[in-house]
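Q: Structure tokens for this one, please.
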Amino acid sequence: MKNMPPDVVNYIDISSACERLISAKVYKTILKKFLTNKEIDKLLMEYHGNNLEEAIKTIHAIKGMVGNLSLTALYEGSVHLEMKLKQGESTNQDMEKFKCLWEKTKKYAALVVEAIG
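A: Here is the predicted structure, written as tokens:
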């Protein structure tokens, strides 16, 4: 894909996703849905509202979604955050790091959607 920042490959495994999802066109369609996904807002609201049980369910759902889309960095971040939430060791800093990772991945995902055409 042309005009991609070199570190996109650290965030998104495009070839794996396209193989799993049959084609780049299908991947683009599903990736566009990710761009409008609001699960991060739900997760933050649950966490800051001390509803850890729901936050664990939400991060688990996020982990599945981003894993299926081969959003590798966000998947790894989801695994880490889910573990910390389950162990009761998550902090506001963990949530902020995850939110930043979400936003950066979203930025790269938008570039991939544009590059697929």
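A few notes: The chain has a mean pLDDT of 92. The chain is about 75% helix and 0% strand.
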